[in-house]
Write a structure and sequence with these properties.
The protein has about 450 residues and is an alpha/beta fold. It has helices spanning about 75-85, 105-115, 140-145, 160-175, 185, 195-200, 210-225, 235-250, 260-265, 285-295, 310-315, 330-340, 345-360, and strands at about 5-15, 15-25, 30-35, 45-50, 55, 60-65, 90-95, 120-125, 150, 175-180, 190-195, 205, 230, 255, 300-305, 390-400, 415-425, 430-435, 435-439.
Length: about 450
């Protein structure tokens, strides 16, 4: 394997940062320091990281790769390419495929396809068979394959007794459940946030309490079982408050927020453009600001993209008929940098929410815990696997359709001016993205 030097960047460790070189040899970090790249091995590839942040590659807890079942929208290979350009060295493939990832054969298929991708692809298994919320999936069998996170994402587990049984079963396995929090009866097939705007637009609303009721219920179940739980794409101020209070109480809970929930509010839906239709929906401006404060203040564990590609003809349907979901992998780092304050952003916080915390939640921090994958979210120190990203905080660019690696184009950010961009992505010691493009 070729050697790589990332030269003269701001190397971001968990507790500080330094201008240094990072030398990667045979897939692992061999040296870090001002002289680490002075005398590189013969044939070593040199990447100039001057003015850039160098940190652990991003890890996405929430990627819809659509394979198997909807390869017209995305494949494991195309989604992995989009992730690499976005600075992600590992993603967690969601199980709401067709059919759902609720058995050994399908999970093995995705892992095998992922092993050929340009980044590491881990798998989230379904909590229940067919994600129907009735019978538990074979959690132990899937855990034996290396699955460490389970969710019925797209729907929440509606039956509290089933969810309690799943939590009890998951705890001794050493795995974590993740919940899409939404009471289906309250959500009532609404297509945007319930409020004055939805009424004016003539669209059925999804009330914020649909999310908050399930968050509150599941916190009670965590308190009862002691099992860890991760809350997916939290979208309201009240949900965040409940989770933060529970964490302060000592409950083993974590949460993620998606870029569209801290950059866009419900007013975007006034155009009836289905590229702004997501689930949970874009919320009020007050909710958006609350999420941004929580992100900056350290109350949010992770930024997760909820990358949800759809074939163009499906997003061309009327707003209330079109499927929910937007692309997220290729713009998440820039949007997070912006939300954290752009020029005033804390690089430690940036890498905490995009890399180190997600890797911990997904149990991707140790190679021996996930034998199919490298270790991610490291401290950028000697011995770490060579999964790194070079992020240029000064680059200004505009999101364009022709620049997307995803098969789909349902991004709400096309035409938006962004600041901060991934310049280089290194996966298990190999440079897969350089100067912003795939190698």
């Amino acid at each position: 394997m070729a050697s790589v030097v990332l030269r003269n960047g701001l190397v971001v460790h968990p507790d500080g940062a330094e201008i240094a070189d990072v030398l990667i040899v045979d897939g692992r970090i061999a040296a870090v320091g001002r002289d680490a790249g002075v005398d590189p091995p013969s044939g070593c590839r040199v990447i100039d990281a001057t003015g850039c942040w160098v940190g652990p590659g991003f890890v996405d807890l929430h990627t819809h790769l659509r394979e198997p079942g909807d390869e017209a929208a995305e494949t494991i290979a195309s989604g992995a390419r989009a992730a690499a350009v976005g600075g992600f060295t590992a993603v967690l493939a969601m199980p709401n495929t067709e059919p759902a990832l609720d058995n050994v054969a399908l999970v093995t298929y995705v892992l095998d396809q992922g092993s050929r991708a340009v980044i590491d692809v881990a798998v989230a298994g379904a909590i229940t068979m067919s994600r129907a919320g009735e019978r538990l999936a074979p959690l132990a069998e899937l855990a034996a394959l290396g699955v460490r996170l389970f969710t019925d994402d797209g729907v929440g587990v509606q039956n509290a007794a089933v969810m309690r049984r799943a939590l009890r079963y998951a705890r001794p396995l050493g795995v974590r459940l993740a919940q899409h929090c939404e009471d289906a009866a309250l959500a009532a097939d609404g297509s945007m946030n319930e409020g004055a705007l939805s009424s004016r637009l003539g669209l059925v609303g999804r009330p914020s309490i649909a999310e908050e009721v399930m968050v509150a219920r599941d916190l009670v179940l965590v308190r009862s079982t002691g099992a860890p739980l991760h809350f997916l794409h939290v979208s309201t101020a009240r949900s965040l408050d409940l989770i933060v209070r529970a964490r302060a109480e000592g409950l083993p809970v974590s949460c993620e927020v998606a870029p569209h929930h801290f950059t866009l509010d419900e007013s975007a839906c006034a155009t009836y453009d289905a590229n702004f239709k997501v689930n949970p929906p874009l919320r009020s401006s007050e909710d958006v600001e609350a999420i941004r404060r929580a992100l900056r203040g350290g109350d949010v564990d992770a930024v997760a993209t909820d990358h949800a590609p759809h074939a163009p003809q499906r997003k061309d349907l009327p707003f209330d008929e079109a499927p929910a979901g937007v692309l997220g992998l290729e713009h998440a780092a820039s949007l997070t940098y912006e939300a954290l304050g752009a020029v005033g952003s804390d690089p430690q916080r940036f890498f905490a929410v995009l890399s180190r915390n997600p890797a911990t939640i997904a149990q991707l921090r140790r190679r021996d815990a996930r034998p199919r994958h490298g270790a991610h979210g490291g401290a950028v120190e000697v011995g770490d696997d060579g999964n790194l990203v070079v992020f240029d905080p000064s680059e200004r660019w505009v999101a364009r359709r022709e620049g997307l690696q995803s098969r789909a184009s349902n991004s709400p950010y096309l035409g938006r001016a962004l600041v901060g961009r991934v310049r280089c992505t290194v996966v298990n010691g190999a440079v897969v993205v350089d100067e912003g493009g795939l190698t």
